[in-house]
Model the fold of this input.
Amino acid sequence: MTDKTIERFFCNNCKNETKHDVQSEYKKRMDDDQVWLLERNLIVECRGCENVQLVKKTLFSEDIEPIGYDATGDVEYRENWDENIYPPVTYRSAPDWFEDLPDATLRDVSSEIYKSLQSGSRYLATFGSRTLIDRLMVLVVGDEGTFRKGLKALKEEKKISEHEENILTPVIEAGNAAAHRRWVPTEEELTTILDTVEGLIHRLLVLPQLAEELKGSVPSRTYNKTSNTPTTVKKPSTIVEKIEAAPKHLKSLYKNLESRLKALGEDVKVSPQKHYMAFRRTRNFASVQMYNQKEILRVYLNLDPEAFELDADFMRDVRQIGHYGTGNLEFTITSEADLEKVSEFIIQSYNAS
Done:
């Protein structure tokens, strides 16, 4: 095509219908006696965000219908094109915090749920939501055997209120109906199910960590000695800001840790995230957080806590505890001696990544 045309399509990135440049088009027509099928295959680019996608439009001769007459008396027709977009229009995106969930099963199942939504499989998404609740119960209160017992344990341990139990019960029943009776919810009903499941996971596993981060970033209140008026001091919020603002001892400790991690191999990549520093090969093998007020570093490694005898003052099993970054084994580092002790574990995590 020499002259690009402009048409309107739904943009997966902008999340609404926008103007697109048609970068390329291939047409195909199939005739059979009195009927025909016209197919248009388009490569289009959003004029707003420059997102590129493939659009397939088909028009069957029987899908053209008269709608009235024009000013000259000729019949006007409407073409009812069937339209498919690739990648498929995203029904719902996963929350950003799903990537930092402390449990690999929750991350994997949630990923499969949002993939199934792209193909319109509300049945699989509903059944998957039931699985998420089941896994969440195991993480928070242990395996109670049944959903009913799990709900009871959540309530008895004050993890959920009676009001939340009343909200969660029909969501679990919806999952049971999808699994055993092939019930499929409407889009509105599925939205309710996902809102409920995401909200519970966020409150039980994510919010505690967010609250800890918030405590470290809220500005402290000081007084101007000259005017005796209160002022605020902004605290660093990102990991990069925290490293720059860290006390001398803690910054030195981090730099030493960073050097050890980088020295493991030329394939080590350092990727600053908002709340932690990720060190990776094919996947993260160490996630490092910094707490300037407490003057500690926390390192999360991809190791199985059950394979080690845990030192309670130094190591912690965090498979059921929300935290940023990936890794099931947490190490608290406050000194060079702690750094020496964690080194052997870091090497094991590196080799396994």
Notes: The first strand starts at residue 5 and ends at 11. The chain is about 40% helix and 30% strand. The two ends are 47 Å apart (CA to CA). The chain has three domains: 5-86, 96-215, 239-352.
